[in-house]
Amino acid sequence: MRISAAWLGLLLAMLAGAAFAQGCPASGTSIPALTGRMVYEDANGGQIYVYDFLCATTATMPQRVKIETLTVTSTGLTGVGSPTNPVFSPDGQAVVFRAVQNDESHIYYWAIGSGTLTNLTGFMGNQNNQDVKFSADGFSMVWKQLSGVEVASFTLDDTGTPQLSQVRQLTAGTRGASSEASGPTFSPDGQHVYYFTGSACAQPMQIQQISVNSPAGRTNAFSGQAAGTYFYYPAIDYSTDKFFYVTGPIQPAGPGCSANPQVLPPHGPDRLFYYPNANTITGAATEFDASETTVDKSDPAPIDGDYFIYSKDPSGPYGLYLGQLSTGQSWSLAPLNVNISGGSMVGANYTAIRPLAPTTFGLGGPNYHTAPGTRCRKNC
């Protein structure tokens, strides 16, 4: 289902009038320079933002460093609300995310700079679709559906319209039970999917591995998982095959579990770990910044094998930080006007691919062809 473009003019006017962080960061900042783009979620504000790190000014892209708001809030023109789980499309020219319309949870595709949302999963009916990710080669999509895991082939037709085909279920699950599957992501070779299972109220959550081509069985990705711990939010850096995950200790379940199986019981701070290679998850993993033991660190978003973006809550709602694996250093992205006052910044996703068709928003648009390091996507 494609949402009508009748509201295009008003949408563009709203985007043009959004509050941008213009210009370059203040001189003297110690934050390492990045040249890609990031999409992330404000869990408190119910909004998604696209941020461009490139600090430059050109005639065609006058505002390189800025935040752009996607107009998909519950009070927006289309009635699409509660946007979550944003990721860039494989070619970096669109944002794909979960949102709710008419009480149905679907996965939407927005070509950056356009005035149209495409519902990728609407043809399946109300199946509670969310948690979308793409394979390293860009040909496949995986997501959570009805507490299970689905995969499909992903393509763009000659007009640039995204399409799913060969949809199939890898595993089923039940909400709030030990079988519930969440956060799926492809292995580097696309032959397996990692996801975490279990409700925090039912049992410690575990990261499972399942074959894409032979999904009859699944295995625990980590042997010897310590009792009283949970493992979740797997993420893979496809440039180096590093495997990130989040873990923490579980304490006795609180009253929230009986009221809402999605509410985590009281637990110690979340910690970030990684393995050098997702294809050989053996031995002990390395913890990032093990000296910081009193704050949550979550939602790792790999950049280049050394740097990654993550969420941290040092003294209040989550903010976004840049971490460096080789040194253990981290930098708050607050000086870059990334963090929103009163917001909770989570679920970041990064792409190094630059916009290919500049728009007045400086973030690219739907009329594109190919990008360095990516396969041909349209009119090749």
How many extended strands?
A: 24
Helix content: under 10%
SS-based class: mainly beta
Strand content: 35-45%
How is this fold's topology laid out?
Layout (H helix, E strand, L loop, with lengths): L7 H9 L20 E6 L4 E6 L14 E3 L11 E8 L5 E8 L2 E8 L5 E3 L9 E6 L5 E6 L2 E9 L5 E10 L9 E6 L5 E6 L8 E6 L6 E3 L8 E9 L4 E8 L6 H4 L11 E5 L10 E2 L9 E6 L4 E6 L6 E6 L5 E3 L12 E7 L29
Antiparallel strand pairs: 1-2, 1-24, 2-3, 4-5, 5-6, 6-7, 8-9, 9-10, 10-11, 12-13, 13-14, 14-15, 16-17, 17-18, 18-19, 20-21, 21-22, 22-23
Key terms for this structure?
Neuraminidase, 4-stranded antiparallel beta sheet, single chain, 3% helix, mainly beta, globular, disordered N terminus
Task: Please explain how this structure is put together.
The longest helix is centred in the first third of the chain and has 9 residues, at 8-16. This protein is 3% helix and 38% strand. Mean pLDDT is 75; it is low at 1-27, 56-67, 71-77, 259-265 and 358-380. The strands form 6 sheets. Strands 3-2-1-24 form a 4-stranded antiparallel beta sheet, with no helix packed on it. It is mainly beta. The protein has 2 helices and 24 strands. The chain has a single domain, classed as TolB, C-terminal domain (Neuraminidase).
